[in-house]
Sequence to fold (153 residues):
Amino acid sequence: MFDTTIAPTALARILDPVVLVSESGGPPTVGPIRGAVVVALVALGAFFLIVGTVGLVRLPDIYNRMHATSKATTIGAASILLANTAYFGPRGAGLVSLVGIVFLFVTAPTGSHMISRAAQRMGVDFAGDVTWPGASGDVDDPTESDGTEPADD
Fold:
């Protein structure tokens, strides 16, 4: 009634970790598991990018906007780059995507921290009645010196 055997080529397409080339010489195809992983990662990345964009538009001040864009878009872009790695494999374009993820996780938090520090030094206030932790009006600015030299031991 039903043929329960799986052809070796069909099983290889399901389990093969590399991108398969179609027998007709057409564009490369991927197995269903890898295809599902790629689609899931792209959907996850698109979701986080949309959340970051909505946060950029809707949140009230630079600190909140920076938080939304740095966190959500980092995860979103990393998910899409990871989908690229899942599609192309660990070599070639996939390796470039892995390197992109590393640089993204190094540069995005650093950039958002620098934007926050610059806004603090420029005197940009929080929205509402929120203040800096331990707010006494002092801004932690190492460029402003009080004329005292640090003691040498």
